[in-house]
Amino acid sequence: MPLALKKRLPEYEFYREFNNTARSFKTLLCFSLNRENKTLWDLWGYTYNDPCQSHAESIVLKEIERFFKENHPDTVQKYKLTLYMSFSPCYKCCESLANFLKSEERIDLHIKASKLYFSQNSSNQKGLQQLKHQGVSIKVMDKEDFQDCFYLFVNELKQFEGWPDLDKMSVEYSAALEAILNQCETNTDLGNVSADIAALESSPLHADPTGHFDNLTPDNNNRDRPSESETPQKCSIKDGCVGSSKGVKRKLSFED
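Structure for DNA dC->dU-editing enzyme APOBEC-3-like, as requested:
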């Protein structure tokens, strides 16, 4: 599976997939799992969706289940799971996350998404509402979140460089997400998303000679079909712990 544990995310992949002003052809997910009130991460890494097999969220959930099974942690101990995602979860992944949280009540889930995945799709909307109902924290990434993600998963020695219209699109996506999450409470029509979001959601994902994306529509939920899968690159860094300005630490295990 395309899963990189305790590995740095290549910088160019971060900027390509997390850019909230451009469409992407796959989902990139950076995750961390740590015990409540502990700054050291127990498990962390990044993954992409596995073409025609597994969504990125499912890959991470399986790894967390494996981690719990092998380490036999105290079932009373609370954990915080943070997901930085290039796209918000589709309705199927919302269901998977919701079912996982029902079986693992010790986990407090926080989702931070760069872009909304087909925000006008009613099934995707209901999936996000279900997660909110279960107490999941869901937000659209703003500049500070992009900075944190870059620092924690890419390179803590370099400065994050924003792109044109980052703040503008973050505000528009945030407004769309707020409308979705509050719809079930206010029982009001969502109305139309902004012209910028609509343009991104209706534009071609990427040039693809196979033509896999010719008929992709919001209801296809077919984000598991990139032109080809990529093998995560590895960096050569000595083992140790790296801490952020916010006190976050993680165990590193980089290989050549």
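The beta strands are 3-5, 28-35, 40-41, 43-48, 79-87, 107-115, 137-140, 240-243, 249-252.
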